[in-house]
Design a protein that fits this description.
364 residues, alpha/beta, Rossmann fold, 2 domains, 6-stranded parallel β-sheet, 5-stranded mixed β-sheet, 14 helices, 15 strands, 41% helix, globular
């Protein structure tokens, strides 16, 4: 049976489009549907076997096992310089036709296709490709993803849904993402009151999960302009929090895990000795560190390097000072990708457990 295709839009970046899309695609597959995926308009591309495609397309190709054909799965890339080129010579670009070619292929070959939007709803307007225009070209219905809250959530929904109403694009419903667990019932209650007045179904309220915000060691290294000088093979270690070298104590060693130790290079040896002593004296079985950032100038002693090798800790050296590193790390934008399989699994679980899929399956 064929179903109305879905376009996943969001109120802004980093709200949960990819998380929601992952969950929806997986959920439909578990229901026995032949599911297609397409990122009609992308901004950040990868070169895969000489094919230029949006980076999210690569993730979904791995997940649902399709061979990437750019004109079908990633038809438009608005990368660096694209907007200027379009404004200078718009007659040279027929983006609408490119999107419709993808739409015809996906509709003819799948029971349902999930299209992943780009940025906030207005992204792409400069080339007549904002999210509402693209959804109209695709003849798809919209699932709007918005970050959890009450007043701010309703304000964003009112603004963002207006663009789709202007283009006469139907909205299937709303997913409210990243809601603090203790506020789930309250947010659901009050947001539903506003949605009911505007004939918009609430599809689900997704609890905030801290693990989806964990960066990887490689992301840490890039953010601090550093180099992994030992155990670079462990650059996929996840980081749940930061431990400053000056604040190491027994409680932190016993009650944390996947921590990133950030310490001045000249103090690293002393801190490692302290950690070693605490672990031995209190029988702590497992080191709660996933990596170390050694900041500034300084020589690292042999005993410290033995410790690093023993525990397979990736060691990053950077010329930044400790404070500068912590600031840089706090600004990392964390995304789901092939290097974070636990995030993929968690995203699928959250959507599966908290979204009403029956409301999403609409016959065309």
């Amino acid at each position: 049976m064929k179903y109305k295709n879905i376009y996943v839009a969001a109120s802004s970046q980093h709200v949960g489009k990819t998380t929601s899309t992952l969950g929806l695609v997986s959920g439909f597959m578990k229901r026995g549907l032949n599911v297609g995926y397409c990122k009609p308009v992308g901004q950040k591309s990868l070169d895969i076997n000489n094919l230029i495609v949006d980076k999210d397309t690569v993730l979904f190709a791995e997940l649902i096992h399709f061979d990437i054909i750019p004109e079908y799965h990633s038809p438009v890339i608005l990368g660096k310089g694209a907007t200027e080129a379009y404004l200078d010579n718009p007659e040279e670009f027929d983006y609408e036709a490119d999107v419709k070619i993808a739409q015809r292929h996906m509709t003819n070959n799948y029971d349902i296709t999930v299209y992943e939007g780009t940025g906030h709803p207005g992204v792409g307007s400069v080339a007549n490709l904002n999210n509402a225009q693209v959804a109209r070209h695709l003849d798809a219905s919209v699932v709007m993803v918005v970050e959890g809250g009450i007043g701010s959530t309703v304000d964003m929904l009112n603004m963002c849904t207006a663009l789709f109403r202007e283009e006469n694009v139907p909205i299937i419903g709303v997913i409210v993402n990243k809601v603090l667990p203790e506020k789930l019932d309250k947010v659901s209650n009050y947001v539903t009151k506003w949605l009911d007045k505007h004939d918009l179904p609430l599809l689900g309220v997704i609890p905030y999960d801290q693990t989806l915000a964990y960066p990887l060691i490689r992301s840490i290294c890039e953010s601090v302009n550093g180099t992994i000088i030992y155990n670079a093979d462990y650059d996929s270690n996840k980081v749940s929090g930061i431990l400053a070298g000056s604040l190491i104590d027994l409680e932190k060693l016993e009650n944390s895990n996947d921590q990133l130790l950030v310490v001045a290079s000249k103090s690293l040896d002393e801190v490692i000795r302290k950690i070693n002593n605490l672990m031995e004296n209190h029988n702590i079985p497992e080191l709660p560190l996933s990596g170390i950032v050694a900041t500034g100038q300084g020589t690292i002693a042999g005993d410290t390097l033995k410790f690093v090798e023993k525990h397979s800790l990736p060691l990053i050296r950077t010329h930044l000072d400790t404070y500068g590193c912590v600031v840089k790390i706090s600004r990392i934008e964390v995304k789901i990708n092939l290097k974070t399989p636990w995030k993929v699994a968690k995203a699928i679980q959250l959507i599966s457990e908290n979204v009403d899929f029956d409301k999403l399956l609409v016959e065309p």
